[in-house]
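tool_call: predict_structure(chain=1)
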Amino acid sequence: MHEFLLFAPVPAHQHHELLQQLAGLTAMQPRHRLERRLIFKANRKAGRINTRLGGGSQDVQATEIQRLLKMMNGATYYNRVVSVVAEDDFGAPAEEYDFDSQLWRMEWRDIPEAGTRSGVTSRLMANAVLPQGDIVSVMKAWGYTFVNEFVIEGDVFVYNDTVLFLHRVLNYPEDNQTTQQTQRPRTALPPLKDLTLLDPSGSYLLQASATVQDGANAETATQRLYGLRDQLRTAVRLEQADRLSLDTRVK
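tool_result:
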């Protein structure tokens, strides 16, 4: 699949007003979203991944994985493993937040294409559903090492097949688990109020994304983003991102 994107920084004081403007534009209320994002580093070429793992891994969608491997084309990348969590999961006792039952998906995003004149960021992408259970062991078997994790907090809107995600990054507080368990994701989540802003100013990022199955429909996706950019021109300035800032390759 191909992903086409535009981005706009949003100061904290403009957040509420922009939410109202997006709600009016899309004729929908914002869908609040909290995501755990785990970052894994590839240690070897992705083509060596074995999708026929035993135990709890039988739920892996082998077709999705193979499609993802083809997209990755044998290179090594940082990949993110994402799960949607509820606000009540933060600060919940272990018996109420079951890490081993968490649903995960692996999201691969290629480095954006170079030399495009369309004015939007474009890149290859692929997603794959992963098994429940010990996600680190599964990823390790595929040649990936856990690097770190963070939380994304934001609101989602959908407009003419374009997804708008107004969000910011939250970091976990420094504690004993951070220092003693650096090679594994957290099995319990601290209270949400204890997380800290990556950007101390509290600013947000508006991401507008349109996806198509193949490049043949690139013009349609690009025109949708152009139209959205024009409609939001008085509120925010949607632009393509710096290509190297979105580089996902392992150096």
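agent: The chain has one domain: 2-246. Proceeding to next step.
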